[in-house]
Prior knowledge:
alpha+beta; four-stranded antiparallel β-sheet; 12% strand; globular
Amino acid sequence: MPFSLQFNYPIFSTSCSHQLKLHNSIRNQPFKFLCTSPQSEEAAKDSSGENGNGHVILVEKYRNGTSKRYIIDNDSEIKMFLEEHVPATTGSQHLEIPVTELSWLPKVIKDFVLPAGFPDTVTDDYLDYMLLQFPTNVTGWICHTLVTSSLLKAVGVGSFSGTSAAASAAASAAAIRWVSKDGIGAVGRFFIGGRFGNLFDDDPKQWRLYADFIGSAGSIFDLCTPLYPSYFLPLASLGNLAKAVARGLKDPSFRVIQNHFAIAGNLGDVAAKEEVWEVAAELVGLALGILALDTPGISKSYPTLALTWLSVRILHLWFRYQSLSVLQFNTINLKRARILVNSHVLHCTVPGIDECNRMESILLWQRFLRPRIIFEVSLEDMLDRGKYKSMIKQLLNLYKEEKYFLVVNQQKPRDFEVFVSFKEGATSLSVLRSVWQTYWLYQNWGWSDNIFDRLEQSLVELKHRFPDLLQQLIEAGWDTNNLSLKVPKEMSIEELPAL
């Protein structure tokens, strides 16, 4: 049974399943011990709510199992308790578990190798396919390694007969070094796919352009190998690593773009024809490259060759930017949502698909856009630490009809910044509503010294004007049924009814 002891000292928390954990992020609070046992959420709520000492009004849940409980006692004072979930280690854990849920797989690995939201976000045959694809790819790369060795011997690096053991060993070592260069590059793709896989759906334009910048950096390492031939392997490996990272960004981004083109469900046909365009461009580029290498001024002068490469690469990046700029997505991601709601707040109109896509900044990161929106912030951090207990009650009442909490950061009066956290059950529409409220506050800040008066007025405006925004989006051709506005999943807030 959970229990707590209070003293007037700085806080830290423990999880009493033979574990101690220091919690440094909470300061200026009473000293609290929280002991938990592996029991259900209902039992934990009963122990704190039905013993006459208070009841839980909010629970902040984190993906690592930790939670914060906000409890109001009989004196109407709010207390906060940190709780770490410790799963039971009984024999029942070894019962049969559905393979498709992969409950036995550590969470950090599951998040790295599987799509976000698995298994609900993919088809039932996804896992079976990937499990069979893995040995398929392993055997394919074994064959690639063996063939590479044969190719090197064909060009004079050792042979299958008539050579000494030392020569054969040198040939094998050369093949291993060459393949290792490819392996180091593969690590880059492995990291990108596992760590950033959920980003490409939201902003494929940005990541496709970033891929070309990173690929250009990789080519610079390759270009430096004649200057430092003794460092060929590390330079070539770094170049391969950068280009592999670029490929890890390029491939998933372009698949999203291809899917955007295939409005008739003809993704395979679109991809095949794209391959035709790419191969045609490759043949023309190779021919022009060979002609350039036959030019004495380039083939005999390294500075001329490097300058020519730099000029062509800049031209390549410019063409890439232009090609991405003409894309007209009718889905609403966070960047386009900012443009749309800002126009609606200021002018009561929304730009069309073509105009909005032209206004979208491809290069700029979200963190550099203004006003700044920070998602997944604890309520304790949202509010003034010295007054958060009294302010939480106001916040609960203010956002009782919304699926999120939003406040303006009062610690940075010069840089307008808002904190947003989502309740359980929040959807992409909740994200869009929070963005609209943010921009209304940004454009109307300063008319009152009371922050809650401003928040209340912004919610009144949101309630009255948001339906008009949706109607205008539909009339302009925007896809409001498939918003590319993901609700962050690292933290959610469960709001419990008052007793």
